[in-house]
Amino acid sequence: MLGEYRISGRRASEIAAEVERAVGSGELAPGQALPPMRELAATLGVNPNTVAAAYRTLRERGVIETAGRRGSRVRQRPASTSRGSIGVEAPPGGRDVSAGNPDPALLPPLGAVLAAVGRRYDERPGLYGEEPVDAEFARLARAAFDADGVPAGPVAVASGSLDAIERVLTAHLRPGDAVAVEDPGWGSLLDLVPALGLTAVPVPVDDDGPLAAGVERALAAGARALIVTDRAQNPTGAVVGAARAAELRTVLARFPQTLLVEDDHGHGIVDQPLVPLAGTTRHWALVRSTAKAYGPDLRVAVVTGDPLTVDRFAGRQRLGPGWVSRVLQRTVAGLWASGAVDPATVARSYGERRDALVGALARRGVEAHGRSGMNVWVPVPDETGAVARLLGAGWAVAPGARFRIAAATGVRITVSDLSLADIAEVADAVAAALTPASPRNYA
Predict the structure, then answer these.
(1) Is the alpha carbon torsion for 322, 328, 330, 335 positive or negative?
(2) pTM
(3) Are 251 and 216 in contact (CB under 8 A)?
(4) Cα 118 to Cα 189: distance, rounded to the nearest angstrom
(5) In what order do the strands lie in the sheet with 209-210?
(6) Exposed / middle / buried, residue 433 (Cβ in 10 Å: 0-12, 13-18, 19+)
(7) Is 55 left (phi over 0), alpha (psi -120 to 50) or beta?
(8) Cα dihedral sign, 192-195-198-203
(9) 342-388 pLDDT tens trace
């Protein structure tokens, strides 16, 4: 069953650590079946409960999965293997359009706001025991939620979207529970779910977001949570509009116990309106990050949701970091209040480049998707070949494997580092990479 490899250890922690080490080193491959618990216990001369505890630890860490009579096996993508490691480096003189970073030219200057926050801190430093959420930050965040039709709910703060989503999931779910996720979807989220010991159930996505039929299948099969990206979906740029939202609400109304998590990381960089699903189910949370509009190093995300979810979120946070720096919160609140970022201007800048690339690819007979945000998703028949040929042409794109579970192959191109003058060159390279034997000239 394991070939030449032999699991060792006498205690549950030792057995779990040895299997995890072997998975990380490649000695145990994705999909590799592990021995039945009683068989391994007999081989090691330990109690079967010891092996059962080791396997449970490995499941909770996202290293293995157990499927009834099929037994336990290494996950196809263990949590110890980050999707972010699936990538390529731009060659010398080449261009990297894979990173997913915002355009630095569109980020606001921080000097004046930081100086004002610093003066306030000098007068009255933050201390233990104070409220974890700055009052002005909460007021502005709640006002923005209200303006977008997000149901009333308390406000909490996390260190970025992924931190917020992790805390919301662990507030309600337990290892072994299933979570419906977009496919293709955000690679870091697809890593997080198994790392929490949860099972990711892929839901197909089109330009309008998750397909309602796919969501219904996932929930009917037992998924206890659904994660939806409202706008600027990564990697496809999908936007959940009114029609799709109505379809999804109809499905969710049939599964009211579903934990609904909405990721609105595109807030501040898109011009499409938010159409929230929040409030359709008993437990829900909506997360907004400042990373794309104000800079990835401002590790702040605001969360609202039903009172029980936010209360559990805040309670667990108190037992860990305690709170997100109020200095950071006040910096973001200062940027919000000053109007340092004009969402319409930012959205227009990304939109011009994104639409230009989608249009240029269409004129070259290449399908591409990107309704919002800063990314364009290009379906390709041979992902490895396309990435390699583009790399040879001087362009490093993000392999679709970073974003897929069962979805068809593709590549992601981030437009934030492109100018309109670059578009034709990128489109030519992509078209040539997909049809390398017959290059054509497009005026």
Answers:
(1) negative
(2) 0.83
(3) yes
(4) 34
(5) 155-158, 301-305, 283-289, 259-263, 225-229, 178-183, 199-206, 209-210
(6) buried
(7) alpha
(8) positive
(9) 999 999 999 999 999 999 999 999 999 999 999 999 999 999 999 99
